[in-house]
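User: My advisor, Dr. K., asked me to get a structural model of this assembly before our group meeting. I'm new to this, so sorry if the format is off. These are the inputs:
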Amino acid sequence: MDDGRLDQIEQVLVLRARRRHPSALPAGFTGVVMREVRALAERRNDFWSLFALAARRFVPAGALAATAACGYALVSERVLSQALLTLSLHGSGTSYILAGLLP
Amino acid sequence: MNDAEIVRRVLAGDVNAYALLVDGHGPRMLGIISRHVPPDRAPEVAHETFIRAFEKLGTYRAESPFGHWLVRIALRRCADFWRDKARRRETVFSALGPETMDWIESIPSDAPAGGLETLAEENEAGTLLDWALGQLAPDDRVVLTLTHMDGQPLADVAELMGWSLAKVKVRSFRARRKLREVLGHLLDR
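Assistant: The format is fine. Below is the predicted structure of the whole assembly, which you can bring to the meeting.
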């Protein structure tokens, strides 16, 4: 490989790259960009409108369902605690009876 | 009204104010993008840059000029352009034709400075430049164009690319070595 020629070619390419003049912006460039930007903004607004509508519609039902679930969990927890307490108070005999191992 | 104020207006809901930014920065962006992608595709990449910038406008902090922030997005779009081409295995510039090969053969090892200027004006120089840059990885191509071709200070390139100074130095050095390798293989044919 001829390093001298390689240097020359590289220099020519650098000169060429520095000479490149940008083409002018196409006519109506801003208009085309703005059309897409407005469509994007509308889509974004549409999303939040839909989100707000869904929230308004489902929040009461969701709150009711959450309250019911919490209430059910609380009652279940109390019943379970009561059963465990009963078992511990009556000792293992009751456990055997409950398990059906003794008459 | 400065750019930061326009950005605030756009974020507050005045979408039409964004046109001021597109008008103000459009020509400069096209100039920068034209150095990194084929000139006929530059307006398309500039368009994508402004759309991307609008989507990300909420992340702009007025600590640095809006123009710098926009150039960073533009350079990323340029690298994405080449990544996309590589993924689709599209060749934007076909293999070098016999005219370009003859032109390369005609370059002497000790041409005077004026002779190089004349050679750089010829169409084959443009074809070879596009072809040689096309052989590089997208990020290498961008960093080489900024540092070696445009002659921008390394610190500026580091800021534009969002890289450390050391990374810019290393990538720029490797990219130039790769370019010389590519041209060297061409001379050895």
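One thing worth pointing out at the meeting: The interface with chain B takes residues 1-2, 4-6, 8-26, 29-30, 32-34, 36-38, 40-41 of chain A (CB under 8 Å).

User: Perfect, thanks a lot.
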